[in-house]
Amino acid sequence: MVSGALFKSVKSSLSLVQCAKTSVSRVRTFTSVLNDQQREIQELAKQFSDEQLKPNARKLDLEARFPFDQIKRLTDMGFMGMTVEEAYGGRELDYLSVAVAVEELSRGCASTGMIMSLHNFLYANLVNEKGTPQQKEIFLCDFTRGSIGCFALSEPDAGSDVASIKTTATFDGDHVILNGKKSWVSSAIEGSALIVFATVDPELRHKGLACFLVPMDAEGVFRGKKQPLMSVRAVTACDVTFEEVRIPKTYMVGQVGEGFKIAMEQLDQARIGIAAHAVGIAQAALDTAIDYAKEREAFGKKLTRLSSVKDRLTEMSIMTETARLLTYRAATQVSTKNSSMAKYVAGKNATAVADHCVQILGGRGLATTHNAERHYRDARGTQIYGGVTDIQKRLVGHYLLKEHDAL
Questions:
Q1: Number of CB atoms found within 10 A of residue 249's CB
Q2: How many whole angstroms separate alpha carbon 231 and alpha carbon 319?
Q3: Residues 386 and 343: beta-carbon distance below 8 Å
Q4: In this predicted model, what pLDDT tens digit does every residue of 346-390 receive, in sequence order?
Q5: What are the Cα distances from residue 397, in Å, to 274, 341, 394, 401?
Q6: Parallel/antiparallel/unpaired status of strands 209-215 and 193-199
Q7: What does the alpha-carbon distance between residue 226 and residue 303 come to, in Å, rounded to a whole number?
Q8: How many CA atoms lie within 13 A of 6 on its CB side?
Q9: Of 57, 21, 74, 9, whose CA–CA distance to 232 is shortest?
Q10: What percent of the chain is modeled with pLDDT above 90?
């Protein structure tokens, strides 16, 4: 096993890529060059992916089994605290470092890559950046050591329309009482805490939203049954119901009315992780197709010598690299437009690349004994979670016109 000490040795004060989390418009300067720290993290993740994830990915998928062993090893190596301050057990790494790690891990096992991505980009970084010292002691320290955090935003009647959230928060002295139901909460079955968004008054819509940290073992928190999924089957997702859940008021992140802004900022960051996740799946599909085409013969020659197959492989390579570059840019110049553009392109391209992979493998592409069909299923999911492609397209268009004073 590779020691977590490598992370400490590669932390650098000088970076070729400035990863400041600021809104950027009309930026013309960008480089895809990784610095020494980022390259070493990439290599570490690649090695782990090849040795620990790829050999087990198909079995985990077929059995829909959470990758406990793999996540434990990633925790020991520091991957589950990449966005957290060192004072709380983290590594304090920039978003591009996290993105390249997510890509490599997802290349080996899309489910494992997604779990690591969501934990860093949706839970750990929120508590790290917005939590009080008390909140960090309770909801962050253990979450760099093995506990898993969850993000509960979607509801049965509120997915893309976050302002329609119906889970309520009622203040009672020094406590808050939560009632409602959240849907599609990833890792909730294994998780130890939740970031929950609730409204103090549904009539206020987005102005009434607030953000809370909730222990999973709090009285009145009930997990639903695991939802069978088409993609990333080793990731668990279920409903979580809150029935008169009483938590200290000090568990609220920020103020009432700030919940919508917090949620949107987190989704901007999470989409960087999902885009990187999609790039990793696309790369896996491309690798699978090339490996097969090099060995398979048809019409008396290798598939790699058939122009139709070469054309497909070329398109797959271009789409993968295009998505990678957009993802790197989103990770280094964080904005709603950049992250939405990266997720939109990466998700669509990964699905197209995986479709080409299935076509190249032919009948074997449909068989669960080969990886192509898993790559296709995993790629398709990246266009749904974290905000569907339709919403990403609308966001890109909105901010594009805003930049040009055309709204």
A1: 13
A2: 21
A3: yes
A4: 999 999 999 999 999 999 999 999 999 999 999 999 999 999 999
A5: 20, 10, 5, 6
A6: antiparallel
A7: 41
A8: 19
A9: 57
A10: 88
Contact between 157 and 166 (Cβ < 8 Å)? yes
- Residue 368, both tokens: 């669960």
Do 90 and 46 form a contact (C-beta atoms < 8 A)?
A: no
Whole-prediction pTM:
0.91
User: Which helix H or strand E contains 124, and what residues bound it?
Assistant: none
Helix (H, G, I), strand (E, B) or coil at 17: coil
Q: 303-307 contacts: CB < 8 A, separation 24 or more?
A: 303/360
Amino acid identity, position 93: L
E strand or H helix at 114, and its extent? helix 110-118
The answer to whether 110 touches 53, Cβ cutoff 8 Å, is: no
Q: How long is the chain?
A: 407
Predicted pLDDT of residue 24: 40
- The letter for the amino acid at 231 is S
Q: Per-residue confidence of the chain (407 residues) as pLDDT tens digits? A: 445 555 554 444 333 333 434 344 444 577 888 999 999 999 999 999 999 999 999 999 999 999 999 999 999 999 999 999 999 999 999 999 999 999 999 999 999 999 999 999 999 999 999 999 999 999 999 999 999 999 999 999 887 788 889 999 999 999 999 999 999 999 999 999 999 999 999 999 999 999 999 999 999 999 999 999 999 999 999 999 999 999 999 999 999 999 999 999 999 999 999 999 999 999 999 999 999 999 998 888 999 999 999 999 999 999 999 999 999 999 999 999 999 999 999 999 999 999 999 999 999 999 999 999 999 999 999 999 999 999 999 999 999 999 999 98
Tokens of 89: 């057990």
| Amino acid sitting at position 45 | A
Crossing angle of the two packed helices 259-295 and 372-381, in degrees rounded to 10: 160
- Across the strands, what pairs with 213? 195
142, 110, 106: which is closest to 123 by C-alpha? 142
Q: What are the structure tokens assigned to 92, written together?
A: 């304090």
Task: Report yes or no: 85 and 92 within 8 Å, Cβ to Cβ.
Answer: yes
Sort residue 18 into left (φ over 0), alpha (ψ -120 to 50) or beta: beta
The one-letter amino acid code at 26 reads R
Say which residue the tokens 């020991």 belong to. Answer: 76
